[in-house]
Amino acid sequence: MPSNGTTRGDPPLKRRTPALAALVLALLQSAVLAQDVSVSGYGTVGYARSDRDFVYQRHIDRDGTFNRDSVFGVQGDLRFSPQWSATLQLKLAPSLKRDDRWAVMPAWAFVAWRPDDDWLLRAGRMRVPLYLHSESMDVGVTHHMARMPAEMYAIVPSTDYDGATVAKTWMLGSGELSADLYHGTIDTTARFWLRDGLPPQRAAGARFEDVNVRSSGLVLTWRTPDSTWRAGMHSTSTRRQSGEGLPERYPFVTIAPGLGYYQVDAALPGPGLQVIGAVKNTVFTVGLDQPLAPGWRVIAEYARMRQTGSELGAESDGGYFTLLHTVGRATPYVTLGRLRSTDTVLGWQRRLTQTQLPAVVPGAAAINAAMRVAGEQGYAVDQRTWAVGASYTLDSRQKLKLEYQRTHIGQVSRFVDTPPGQPTVSDTGIGVLSINYSFTF
To answer: How do beta strands 119-127 and 160-172 pair?
Structure first.
């Protein structure tokens, strides 16, 4: 069968890789013109192991892995004048396109102009300020948690973008209020897990879909010497790089009273699919990092994602709450996290994966498999997590971290890879033990 949706007449979106490569090359060549050049780096060697046989968060299972949390990077900062500067950061991490490979990618590659102390304009490869730790989430030394909670930090496939941002800062007493307005696009890859696939058109296992995400937003951040508050509104438009349309919903085709199927492919009999060129999302985020008492602080973030144009997407509510207590060099903490798709999204996942035609119906096996594949190519998630852990600061450039987390999967979780032939992993728990060593230089 053909893939879901219909192919639109527009040509595929052009890759921006050559433009980004040209920018990276220009930044490297401009180092000879800089008045000041500084080089720094960071890394995390992270090991994680679960108590279940199925794979969680792409890499974690009973055999253990270094692939989930390990990351390394090097950054060069170039200053040409008091107003002009540039930054280039290269990151080595597990590939977004393959589960069994690592890749070097530019995490930051931008030029900056600061006309005065209150304004900053940047253009190039940057990171959407979606989270409290967006700018530093790869640098493990900057935070105490062994792993940033997936219930918040994995709600989108990528927070990188190629574009521009304008920032305005106001000094108010002992604090600083900043407003960041940004716009850009990114060619990235979304990963889905197909339990059994639909041979030969769809192989079982990981499926990687190249998408283009256009995003813009406004973020307000309030900082004092010991606290940070952030709120943002973000708008995204996501389309397949192939130009293929995305379904709005799937019509139900009745064969007999009480018997039917969802038309998930234009090749199946039915009224046809209504497709759209792009899925649009609006994301509202709030977060705080606030001391409560000497040695005590709380970190919390919440994201509300709403979608228009399709019922088969990523509408969800999620966030986490972390309480930390620093005693000398040690900082133990406890975290509670929750991420749940809307009832509409979960309802489609349930109907598409559980609706079955009896074998006596011609082509039943292929139709059943096609419905399941359609249900698995969504962002449905229903899970909650608690975690206890601690970090130990060896010095200003090194941290050791230990964490145990327990996640309860409700109806489904897109972070879980259901083994072939097994029922969808649901109503169960998974424990994960993580040990990390983070450093900077």
So the answer is: antiparallel
The C-alpha atoms of residue 41 and residue 441 are separated, in whole angstroms, by 5
Q: Give percent above pLDDT 90 in the chain.
A: 88
Residue of 367, 371, 365, 341 lying closest to 353 (CA atoms):
371
Rounded Cα distance between 434 and 46, Å, is 7
pLDDT of residue 309: 87
What pLDDT score was predicted for residue 158? 83
Residue 134, CA atoms < 13 Å, CB-side half-sphere: 24
Does the model's pTM come out above 0.85?
yes
Domain limits, the chain? 43-70+142-440
Both tokens of residue 124? 């190039």
Pairwise CA distance, residues 287 & 303, whole Å: 9
* 3-state secondary structure labels for all residues of 406-439: EEEEEEEECCEECCCCCCCCCCEEEEEEEEEEEE
Q: What is the CATH number of domain 43-70+142-440?
A: 2.40.160
Q: How far is CA 4 from the centre of its chain?
A: 23
The answer to whether 381 and 339 are in contact (CB under 8 A) is: yes
pLDDT tier, 9 (very low <50, low <70, confident <90, very high otherwise)? very low
Three-class SS state of 217: strand
**Residue 363 backbone zone (phi > 0: left; psi -120 to 50: alpha; other: beta):** left
Q: Are 228 and 271 in contact (CB under 8 A)?
A: no
